[in-house]
Design a protein that fits this description.
The chain is α/β, with parallel strands linked by helices. The protein has 4 domains: about 90 residues, Phosphorylase Kinase, domain 1 (2-Layer Sandwich); about 190 residues, Transferase(Phosphotransferase) domain 1 (Transferase(Phosphotransferase), domain 1); about 190 residues, Rossmann fold (3-Layer(aba) Sandwich); about 140 residues, Rossmann fold (3-Layer(aba) Sandwich). It is about 35% helix and about 15% strand. The strands form 7 sheets. It has a 7-stranded mixed beta sheet with strand order 20-19-21-22-23-26-27, covered by helices on one side. The protein has a 6-stranded antiparallel beta sheet with strand order 1-2-3-4-6-5. A 6-stranded mixed beta sheet has the order 13-15-14-16-17-18, sandwiched between helices. This is Bifunctional serine/threonine-protein kinase/ABC transporter substrate-binding protein. GO terms for molecular function: kinase activity.
């Protein structure tokens, strides 16, 4: 348990708040004590989300779903107020460790314990499914251990089986390594999905390892969909049950009721947990149950709110209390923004701060590393414009507990310059997070430096799977996952014999490898692999040979360089089938160089078109006012990155967090931006979700088609 933050309430309804159990982007989980001494876990939602009508509807649904579940092995809802200004949900508090903590501390469970765990969790899932719901996130961290059995928790992402309105279409719900193949592929899920996840949990409990390994999230997802589970070490009899749960097709898995009956046959009357785990439970229970009373703290009166660009939510602008105001007055104030264009590796600081209240507040400094003068300057400048707009908007609000300041460094897209830029930003202890690094080579040069400094690097441009790291956050789908919507498009149009083009680059390898395997494995499509080197002299002959095979569609997965020559050569063959290109082609240089040969190409991109996307309407208006032009690609994503960081700082409740404070919080935050929803895999910082948009080239321009392959 963590101590309360300055902004946490002392009481929620009839519960005295004792401390924090956890925190995330949507709110906090607090430990509360009733007047009679009963401990509860209170999930308190932030006001800015509570004011969102759709979010409040989902929260009401969560409470209703949780109350429908009747089983001793699921944590019950004991109280809730879904209509409060800050809605909350209280559940019974289980002081024991999670299954993940227990296995981490005491090692794998003995066979008798795994059989008992399977029986009781299957009974819990049977109750969940009987209530017409699916849990969707059965994992070791959501299983708490108690002397009388486990407790399944966190129905926050559960959905009624008939709920189609409240499910986000661009998010893969669940935890990689424990989710089902249908979840990994974004397909509809039912009760069988929970059974697959339970099989993963039982394998983990018996061996201490995940059945589909670890590593980059896209690699785990790929193995979940296509590879057999690794069940070495699982006892033979138990292994047969786990293998049945891990059947790839949902129809082949046992039901929760059948699984409960099978596990009950192998149960024993012995204590269900080993002594090492019961000792851990007792130790934690004693620590929690002996908590002292705490003094009441002052809670400020409700504050006015101001609209936030890009959504119908509001941001809390409560003025600081007297004690906090004195702290703020003692802090160094931010100055005026510096003007002018940066030269190579010349950084500039933007210290603009809110002045509406006349009160000085602490400045939270961010770093921006971007290619502002090199080959990637178009995207780099878009990043800079989006970041500066977000900083200016934040600082224009009165009553913020902190202002934002910015240090910008131009790395010219060069690895050596990027390394020097990273050294400068990492050495500045005031910088708590960095947005940027231009491309794959620049990111690769900077990661060791940011890692050593414990400084988060949040990239909206790079998706190289080699850069998975403890401080790297990939704010876009990786190269290996960006083509999944294309597979859906091909399936919708029943296209086969897909010519998949690789240009021998590392980017091309990452894009085409997983995509090709997905096409072969799902639906049994035929893939025609084609290698057309970007600098090859025989592009024309290779393309003619490919077209002669009459492919159902041509998918180009290489870098931008060489793309125009390929498009012209393909046009010369008279090919008229679908032509699709990956993220690298979403660059104005492609239609400019390819000319008429680019028209009709479908391009997928992780960047939205703010001028066409309804969610970015207010952002586009503000951007036009500031820059007198429409926002370019990746401006909205950079804007979202700043707001994501600011949201996490507000959640911490401390206006002066360190860079080390932010690293774990950023990875566990879900943020709805103006471009898309941002969520990350906590273990490796990979982007969780689809986050891909379709464009069609017409008359030399990219026309935005949206995220749904059915609209293409």
């Amino acid at each position: 348990m963590q101590p309360l933050a300055p902004g946490d309430p002392a009481r929620i309804a009839g519960y005295r708040v004792l401390g924090r159990l956890g925190t995330g982007g949507m709110g906090v989980v607090l430990l509360g004590r009733s007047a009679g001494g009963t401990l509860v876990a209170v999930k308190l939602i932030r006001a800015e989300y509570a004011d969102d009508a759709s979010f409040r509807a989902r929260f009401r649904r969560e409470v209703a779903i949780a109350r429908q579940v009747r089983t001793r092995y699921a944590v019950p809802v004991v109280d809730a107020d879904t209509e409060a200004a800050a809605p909350w949900l209280a559940t019974a508090f289980v002081p024991g460790p999670s299954l993940a903590d227990a296995v981490g501390a005491a090692g794998p469970l003995p066979v008798r314990s795994v059989w008992a765990l399977g029986r009781m969790l299957a009974e819990a899932l049977e109750a969940v499914h009987t209530a017409g719901t699916v849990h969707r996130d059965v994992k070791p961290g959501n299983v708490l251990l108690a002397p009388d059995g486990p407790r399944l928790i966190d129905f926050g992402i559960a959905r009624a089986l008939d709920d189609t309105v409240l499910t986000a279409a661009d998010v893969v719900v669940g935890s990689p390594g424990f989710l089902s193949p249908e979840q990994a592929q974004g397909r509809p899920v039912g009760p069988a999905s929970d059974v697959f996840s339970l099989g993963c949990v039982l394998a983990y409990a018996a061996t201490g390892t995940r059945p589909f390994g670890s590593g980059p999230v896209e690699a785990v997802l790929f193995r979940t969909v296509y590879d057999p589970a690794r069940l070495d070490g699982v006892p033979a009899r138990l292994r047969a049950v786990v293998e049945a749960c891990l059947t790839k097709e949902p129809a082949g898995r046992p039901t929760a009721a059948h699984l409960r009956a099978v596990c009950a046959q192998d149960g024993t009357e012995e204590a269900w947990l080993p002594h090492s785990v019961t000792h851990l439970i007792a130790e934690r229970s004693a620590r929690m149950l002996s908590l002292p009373e705490i003094d009441a703290t002052h809670v400020d009166s409700p504050a006015p709110t101001v609209p936030s660009i890009g959504s119908d939510t509001t941001q809390d602008v409560r003025p600081p209390g007297r004690r906090r105001a004195l702290t703020y007055l003692a802090s160094t104030a931010a100055g005026l923004a510096a003007a002018g264009t940066s030269a190579w590796l010349i950084g500039r600081a933007d210290d603009s701060a809110a002045r509406g209240s006349g009160t000085r507040t602490p400045a939270l400094r961010l770093g921006l590393q971007a290619d502002l003068s090199g080959p990637g300057r178009q995207q780099g400048r878009a990043n800079e414009q989006g970041v500066r707009l977000a900083v200016a908007e934040h600082n224009a609000r009165d009553g913020n507990p902190f202002t934002l300041a910015l240090t910008t460094v131009d790395d010219r897209g060069d690895p050596s310059a990027a390394e020097a830029a990273a050294r400068r930003l990492a050495a500045d202890e005031e910088i708590v997070a960095v947005i940027g690094a231009s491309g794959a080579e620049a990111v690769g040069a900077t990661i060791p430096l940011y890692d050593a400094a414990g400084l988060t690097l949040l990239s909206v441009l790079d998706g190289d799977i080699r850069h998975i790291n403890r401080v790297f956050l990939c704010a876009r789908p990786s190269n290996a996952l960006q083509m999944y919507p294309v597979a859906q498009y091909l399936g919708l149009h029943d296209l086969d014999d897909i010519a998949l083009v690789d240009d021998e680059s590392e980017y091309g390898r990452q894009v085409t490898r997983f995509f090709g395997e997905a096409l072969r494995g799902e639906g049994g499509r035929t893939v025609l692999p084609v290698t057309v080197p970007a600098h090859g002299k025989d592009t024309g002959s290779l393309v003619r040979a490919m077209a002669a095979r009459s492919p159902g569609a041509v998918v180009y997965g290489g870098e931008a360089e060489g793309m125009d020559g390929f498009a012209r050569a393909l046009a010369g063959t008279g090919y008229r089938g679908p032509r699709i290109a990956s993220q690298a082609a979403h660059d104005s240089r492609f239609p400019a160089r390819a000319g008429a040969a680019a028209d009709g190409w479908i391009v997928v991109s992780t960047a939205t078109d703010p001028a066409a996307a309804p969610s970015a309407r207010d952002f586009t208006r503000a951007f036009r006012t500031r820059y007198r032009t429409d926002p370019p690609a990746f401006a909205a994503e950079a804007y979202d990155a700043v707001r994501l960081i600011a949201s996490c700082v507000r959640g911490l409740g401390r206006p002066r967090p360190t860079r080390h404070d932010l690293v774990p919080v950023l990875r566990n935050t879900r943020h709805r931006g103006v471009s898309k929803t941002y969520a990350f895999e906590p273990e490796n910082g990979g982007y969780v979700g689809t986050g891909v948009f379709f464009y069609r080239v017409a008359a030399g321009r990219f026309r935005f088609l949206g995220a749904d392959p059915r609209t293409v």
